[in-house]
Every structure is written in structure tokens, then in C-alpha cells.
Amino acid sequence: MNYQDRVSSHVMELRSIPNLVMPTCELGSGPPRELSADEAVLIGAIWGEDAVEGVRDYLLSIDRIHVAWHTDDHYLFGEFALKDLRDCVTGFGLPDVDVRLPAEKQELMEWELKTLEEAPGSGRLTALRVPSGGSSRELWFYDMNHERLELLDLDFRSYLENLLLMKGAPGWQYLFTEVDLGGREFQTLVGQLDRTLEALPVLFPAHDYSRLQERYEARCSRSPEFHRHRSPWTV
Known about the structure:
Blueprint: H1 3-15, E1 20-26, H2 37-47, H3 52-55, E2 64-71, E3 77-83, H4 85-90, H5 103-111, E4 113-118, E5 124-129, E6 139-143, E7 148-151, H6 156-166, H7 187-203, H8 210-220
Antiparallel strand pairs: 1-2, 2-3, 3-4, 4-5, 5-6, 6-7
């Protein structure tokens, strides 16, 4: 099953939650657009020729899919707007540079990063690094709210797999950075991650959340919010 069809399956899972609201669901239809020879050359130039075959099942039939959802009490929520890989690497760079960041990260934002996925209006996005005339497999997570631009311990395919599991829950990307989430700066975000990672394994037992839970405990165990909340979904 290709990635776009798998997203559709996860949307059906979300719709099975009682009292769920889904204000946005733009998935497109039909099989993914075929990868042209020129597009394969471009992806190979950025990631290496060995990466080309591995991305075919992750291509989309449209330029972007967008899903937003929440329970009616907003206890759980998520959103993701994911670009097709080809639209990402051939499109424009980030629209703005955060002048609060160190100079080397400002330069990275200005010249080498292109948005792959975001929750529009949240101030958070994930970008591919596409250096001019060079190659890189890096993904970077930008959070305007916390003045952070962080390298992710994920490649393209593993990012999309975790995006599916977390269903666009806010801030899950921090679990794959070196950021210590134990301080009060991240109190609200950690509280939401806590609620999400308690609820999702109960709601969707067919999926394995153990690795994400382990990362959460490693990153957040010193936070004032750690395990403070008990999910109403927990049995």
C-alpha cells in the first residue's frame, strides 16, 4: 500500500474516535504520480542514487495532503500538511529567516532548507536540507515559538512513518532531537505529548508506540508535566 493510501487508512482510524472533529481532510485520490527520469536524477543528486527506489512508495498524487483533527474537547488534536517530495525539492525555500537564531542557522534557513511538512499557523515546520550543488539527507525541525531550529535524528521515510503514528500531534518531532524537554520552557508541549502518548496506544492498539514512548520518557522525565495527566482514554 502506498503512503497516500496509508494516510487515508489512518484518517479512517481517526474518524472512529467518538466526538472527533476533522475540519480539514484534503487527501486527493488515485495512485501517486510516476517518478520521472528527471525527478529521479534530482533526488539522486540530493540523497544519492541508492535512495531513489526507496521513495517511490512515499510519493503523492497531488502536491500536498492536509489533515487537521481534534476531539470536541480539544484534549487530543493534530494537524499535518505534507508536501509531495518532488514539490518540496523543486519549490522555493523557507519564506522567512528567524533573526533570533545563531548566524549559522539563519544562513541554513535562508539558503538550504525547504518545507516538507507543517501545521499551518502553528509556527512549526519540518524542512529538507537541499544544499546548492551538494548532497544531504538531513531533516530540520523549526519551532518559531521556542526559537529553535534542530537537526532531526530521522530520514525522509522514517519521518513520514512517525508522522503517521503521531497523526500530526504537536511537537512530536522534539523526541528526535537533542533538546532537553525537562525545563518549564516546554511545559505545555510536554503535557500535550503526555496526553497523546497515553491515548493513542489505547485508541489504536494495532500500532506499536513503544519506541515513541521510550523516547518521550528519555526526553521528558524531568519535566514538571511528566505523567501529571491521566488520559480518559486509558483503560
